[in-house]
Specification:
Layout lengths: L4 H7 L13 H9 L13 H6 L1 H4 L6 E5 L2 E5 L17 E7 L4 H13 L2 E3 L2 E3 L3 E5 L5 H14 L4 E4 L3 H8 L8 E5 L4 H11 L2 E5 L3 H13 L5 E4 L5 H17 L9 E3 L7 H13 L2 E6 L4 H14 L12 E5 L8 E5 L2 H13 L4 E6 L6 H6 L5 H10 L10 E4 L7 H7 L4 E4 L7 H7 L2
Helix pairs in contact: 1-2, 5-6, 6-7, 7-8, 11-12, 15-16
């Protein structure tokens, strides 16, 4: 049974050192009881207390990792229902599925395209996480060939999908030393698949017709020594998938119901319709899948899912930032104009992409505004004349440009007078308010 906050407090060092981020040990204990912090945040807890606090310190949703040669995909370990409460930690893995009934060349081609897909989004490289191989032929040899075909062109983690233990064994024989996800164990085959998962240190997907069935199976499987589980509550359409996923999340977090405290696996690809598949995948990303299996792969299909996932799983308390500095756009010469902005990633890339796309050479001075946008940083006192002048000196701008002219964002035109005082001898220009208007401004004014 989970401990109360007072019971946890009695096992803590009670020094009120504040190094955990809370003013008192009691406050930390209450947060630990609510599953909103981790025991590791306390630097002075004793080993004896750690052992006694193991259940309370354990995350309500188990962290499950799939590993292959050089890759790892994690899901679980979440502690909140809603992103604004704290943050979501582990983005759901997006896996592209192939069927063992498809020709080997088709499998390789699909995997090769998906494996090589990478898109840069506000300074971050986004890509899929792995592949699923489904046994639809009912033949172990065909399944093994399909797994081998995937492995020839990609080393990303795998999900092996079959309810036949012998077919599953055929696929596992190709993946020596890896830790895939075996899907799936049901009321009829769970003992055999649990043995396979245990012998191969693999995670195991659990299938049940009701949440009660799933809970019963997870307890039986964990008793066999398999701890890394993923649950499939069914619900292949919008309302059932949302309802069941939310129930599992609430029971795990609010009731600390361990038999359902595992990542969820979703199969949008089972819809059979690309449009529905995309929408179901988007819902699964938001509520609350840990592994998502899709059948469709194309840049148009996968890009919005990757961006949605990145946005949801970005810590809302930590803005996406780029490194402050002086950036070159289109190989600028010393006489090229100097623009200035903040280090909020979206602001930076909005400006840089517009200028780069127009083919105009420019210098872009990025100041440290703690990741805030221009107006937000200005209102907070993080983007002012003093900081801009400091950046000009810090990054040795005068050694790289020949014209002492700097262009301010239009939204902070009020800084022009103050910046003239901070940078004597410089000409201060006020640019447009929107990034899309910068190329026209540069052509007409600069």
């Amino acid at each position: 049974m989970a401990l109360t906050g007072i019971q946890i407090y009695k096992l803590l060092p009670q020094t009120n050192c504040k190094e955990c981020g809370f003013p008192t040990c009691l406050a930390f204990a209450m947060k630990l009881a609510a599953k909103q912090v981790e025991l590791a945040d306390c630097p002075y807890v004793t080993e004896e207390s750690k052992a006694q606090l193991a259940e309370s310190a354990a995350p309500p949703i188990r962290l499950v990792s799939l590993k292959s040669d050089g890759y790892e995909t994690k899901a679980g370990n979440e502690v909140v229902l809603f992103r604004h409460e704290k943050t979501f930690y582990h983005m759901p893995g997006i896996f592209v599925r192939v069927m063992d009934s498809d020709p080997v060349d088709e499998i390789k081609n699909k995997v090769r395209l998906a494996d090589g897909y990478k898109v840069n989004y506000v300074g971050m490289d986004l890509s899929i996480d792995g592949f699923a191989v489904a046994s639809v032929s009912g033949d172990g040899t065909a399944f093994a060939k399909a797994v081998a075909a995937v492995r020839e062109v990609s080393q990303r983690p795998l999900v092996l999908q079959s309810r036949d233990p012998e077919i599953m064994r055929s696929g596992l024989d190709v993946l020596e030393g890896e830790q895939p996800l075996l899907y799936g164990a049901d009321a009829n085959n769970w003992e055999s698949l649990a043995e396979l998962a245990k012998d191969n240190k693999a995670a195991l997907g659990v299938i049940g017709s009701t949440l009660e069935d799933i809970a019963d199976l997870t307890e039986k499987i964990t008793a066999k020594g398999v701890a890394d589980l993923v649950v499939d509550p069914g619900g292949r359409t919008f309302s059932p998938a949302l309802t069941l996923g939310t129930q599992i999340r609430r029971l795990s977090l609010k009731k600390n119901f361990r038999p359902l405290g595992y990542p969820i696996i979703a199969f949008p690809g089972d819809s059979g319709d690309t449009g529905l598949e995309s929408m179901l995948a988007a819902q699964a990303i938001a509520k609350y899948a840990g592994f998502i299996i899709v059948d469709t792969f194309s840049p148009a299909f996968i890009y919005p899912l990757l961006v949605l996932r990145q946005n949801i799983y970005t810590d809302p308390q930590k803005p996406i930032q780029v490194q402050p500095g002086l950036y070159e756009i289109n190989n600028p010469k010393p006489e090229a104009p100097l623009l200035v902005t903040t280090n909020f990633s979206i602001t930076y890339f909005s400006v840089a992409n517009e200028v780069e796309g127009a083919g105009l050479p420019a210098w872009l001075l990025v100041t440290d505004a703690e990741g805030m946008s221009v107006l937000t940083a200005w209102a907070a006192g993080k983007f002012d004349a003093e900081r801009i002048a400091k950046a000009v000196k810090e990054f040795n701008v005068v050694d790289k440009i020949s014209t002492k002219q700097i262009v301010l964002p239009g939204h902070v035109a009020v800084l022009s007078g103050e910046l003239e005082e901070e940078l004597p001898g410089w000409q201060i220009r006020v640019g447009p308010r929107e990034a899309v208007d910068i190329p026209a401004f540069m052509k007409q004014v600069l």
